[in-house]
Design goal:
single chain, alpha+beta, Bacterial Protein-export protein SecB, 4-stranded antiparallel beta sheet, 4 strands, cytoplasm
């Protein structure tokens, strides 16, 4: 009886088509750790100036697969000397179905995929710093959704400015 009710409910429900998304693979594409001023840097008081840079890149592969690469670069300086320099390119291959609407696909590639990759990059950075015998450092969480929203807003403003400029340069008839 329960099977009949469940089957009946499935037949009555509208067939909603869901966009396909799958993580195919997550991997380190490139890792670099440098301590150019060691061992002398270890004798200095540990009050570093930290500089963190992040970037994402993506490219379409075959069969609706996309490679997304999150690059994290962290430099620690003491008295204008580099204590360490870490760069991690954490990458993933993601299947994004062609039935996914373009705005949603752009959000997946620009925000959701980097959000997925960030914990892996964070762990790798912390591990490399630890293996260099430097004090523990954890990257702070990043709101990739907000960054993506700012990027899209900036693109929209640039497109509007270009359209206004083209309209003002058009000859009057």
């Amino acid at each position: 009886m329960a099977d009949e009710i469940q089957t009946g409910a499935q037949e009555d429900a509208p067939q909603a088509k869901t966009a396909q998304f799958q993580i195919q693979r997550i991997y380190c594409k490139d890792i670099s750790f440098e301590t150019p001023n060691s061992p002398a840097i270890f004798t200095k008081e540990w009050k570093p100036e930290m500089k963190v840079d992040m970037d994402t890149k993506s490219k379409k592969l075959e069969d609706n697969n996309y490679e997304v690469v999150l690059t994290v670069t962290l430099q620690a300086k003491i008295e204008d000397q580099t204590a360490f320099l870490v760069e991690v390119q954490q990458a993933g291959v993601f299947l994004i179905g062609e039935d996914m609407p373009e705005p949603q696909k752009a959000h997946m590639i620009g925000a959701f995929c980097p959000n997925t990759l960030f914990p892996y990059a964070r762990e790798t950075v912390a591990s490399l710093i630890n293996k260099g015998t430097f004090p523990v450092f954890n990257l702070q969480p990043v709101n990739f959704d907000a960054i993506f929203a700012q990027y899209m807003q900036k693109r929209a403003q640039q497109a509007q400015a270009e359209a206004e400029q083209a309209a003002s340069e058009a000859p009057l008839q």
